[in-house]
Design brief:
The chain contains 21 helices and three strands. With 538 residues, the protein is mainly alpha-helical. A hairpin with a 4-residue loop joins strand 2 and strand 3. The two termini are 28 Å apart.
Length: 538
């Protein structure tokens, strides 16, 4: 009985990991992610179409994506180009996510959380909206999620064991992380400076000198390789006012505290709160405030959403009616209000999350430094948009510079320690994991209406999944057997939402090899193996 009880959290994690992965593959087209045409330059660079990227971000993330895409080169044609590109992006993101999850597992293990608490936390993590965003888009923030837990773990073990080896093991994680993107560099560097640097050097300053030198050397090597490919430095912002006039503004100082509560509750629509950091954060943490992910009309997540709650206009007083067959509640009113049910639910969850976050920070325990991470990151973004340093980067009509995706890896670490603390040693609280996952699925756009055309399109996408047969059994029970995926790829079928690409043959070439990035990437894997091994030494 005890073994079964212990197996349930592990099974829950594994199943939710699989299920969330396949939902993302089937319901979101990663080649339609925000700024995709801009970042597609990295694919062109690695596949020798252009000589430099004209961007400023690190090569590591896009190197992984390019080589993964190359693994499908034998099957590429003009029709399936984007479905394979979508597949390679999501698989690359998934591998990075797994690496980060592994780091989180051992980080929580280091702090002596129970196995049950760890696996229930990770199970919920699989469906968190801001995690899902990192996993579905072509953006390098997922690298921050992958590396940051290992960095923290190495530093924590050094502070306890006083072994310089852990500082050396942290170097590949740190080098990759801070070379990923300018915003990631600033956030991670400032966080480590505040919470770890002085503690580390106070143990034994002499032991720190050589690791710092080696980190600088490795980072310099990556910097040179990246700068040569980009013809731009990581700190040279290739967005904002440098690319578009509408971003050539500074945000007003009152954006920090300004909020219209009535408008927040009645009109949680994109761009309606561009002048309020609080509103944007609350609506974007557990929601898709800017309508670019699961609320994007082009996304399968947004399609065929089942109406489970609706208002109907009526001149007379009527009691609400619940339709058991359609699982729909109809409420009658003289004036039908605008209904933003998913947005409102996401808003409530965000409020609860941030309230608990602040309350737990106030406890000032050993986990407070993790809980405060997203607030620190948001402060950095606010300084950026208010001061205009290094360049103006704020569109007053949108406010999208404050998207939570930019510090989602910090949001992740804070949520992990908040939730793990909440359910630790409290059996009944672990039971909230499943209801919370169901709520997350609702926010993503479920349940779905039965639609022949929609089901057929999903089943066509499923043909390209490694888990095609399993998906047929576990994800398509309500679809007519005739529509179930045959799990035999038909490379000539045009899938809705995935266009054609005439120059597909250019991507059959062997991609460039960014040798320094590759070597540091291999070193990070070896470092993780060694760190893991320390948990199993007698």
């Amino acid at each position: 009985m005890i073994k079964i009880k212990n197996a349930i959290p592990k099974f829950t994690f594994i199943f939710t990991l699989y299920y969330s992965k396949e939902l993302n593959f089937l319901y979101y087209n990663s080649s339609d992610s925000p700024d995709f045409p801009t970042y597609f330059n990295y694919f062109k660079y690695f596949f020798l179409e252009i000589e430099n990227t004209s961007r400023e971000q690190g090569l590591f993330y896009y190197l992984l994506n390019s080589w993964k895409f190359y693994s499908f080169s034998d099957s590429l044609n003009n029709v399936n180009f984007f479905i394979y590109l979508h597949k390679s992006i999501q698989q690359t993101n998934f591998y990075l996510y797994l690496f980060g999850v592994l780091g989180v597992y051992y980080l929580l293990k280091h702090f002596r959380f129970s196995q049950n608490s760890i696996f229930y936390t990770l199970a919920l993590l699989n469906f968190l909206p801001f995690i899902m965003v990192m996993r579905i888009v072509l953006k390098p923030e997922i690298v921050g999620f992958a590396m940051f837990p290992w960095i923290i773990l190495c530093f924590e073990k050094y502070l306890i064991d006083n072994k310089p080896l852990y500082l050396y093991l942290s170097i590949p994680f740190l080098a990759i992380c801070i070379s990923t993107k300018g915003s990631v560099l600033v956030m991670v560097a400032l966080y480590l400076l505040i919470f770890y640097f002085f503690k580390v050097i106070s143990v034994d300053f002499k032991k720190v000198i050589l690791p710092i030198f080696l980190l600088a050397l490795v980072t310099l090597g990556i910097y040179i390789e990246d700068s040569n490919a980009n013809e731009a430095s990581i700190i040279e912002l290739q967005s904002g006012s440098t690319q578009a006039e509408n971003y050539d503004f500074k945000a007003p100082k009152n954006i920090v505290y300004k909020i219209d509560i009535y408008k927040l509750l009645t009109s949680p629509k994109k761009y309606d709160h561009s002048n309020s950091t609080i509103a944007i954060t609350l609506l974007d943490t557990f929601g898709d405030y800017f309508d670019v992910y699961w609320d994007n009309d082009a996304s399968n997540y947004a399609s065929e959403r089942k109406i489970i709650f609706e208002y109907m206009e009526s001149n007379s007083i009527k009691a609400p009616i619940f339709d058991m067959e359609q699982t729909k509640l109809t409420v009658y009113d003289q004036k039908v209000p605008d209904l933003y049910l998913r947005e409102f639910v996401g808003l409530i969850i965000s409020i609860v999350f941030y309230v608990f976050l602040i309350l737990y920070i106030a406890k000032r325990n050993q986990y407070s430094k993790f809980l405060v991470a997203p607030l620190l990151a948001l402060s950095i973004l606010l300084v950026h948009v208010i001061t205009g340093y290094p360049v103006n980067n704020f569109d007053p009509s949108k406010g999208d510079t404050l998207k939570t995706i930019y510090y989602s890896f910090f949001l992740s670490i804070s949520f992990i320690f908040l939730y793990a603390q909440t359910i630790e040693n409290k059996k009944y609280k672990k039971l909230i994991t499943l209801p919370l996952i169901i709520i997350m699925l609702f926010l993503l756009g479920f349940p779905k209406e039965n639609s022949l055309e929609f089901s057929n399109n999903i089943s066509n996408i499923n043909n390209y999944s490694h888990f095609c047969n399993t998906n047929n059994l576990l994800m398509f029970q309500n679809i007519d057997d005739a529509l179930l995926s045959k799990c035999k790829q038909s490379n000539e079928i045009q899938i809705l939402g995935y266009g054609e690409y005439k120059d597909y043959s250019d991507f059959k070439r062997i991609p460039r090899l960014a040798l320094t990035n590759v070597l540091v990437g291999i070193a990070s894997i070896l470092s993780s193996v060694f760190v893991i091994s320390t948990f199993y030494k007698d």
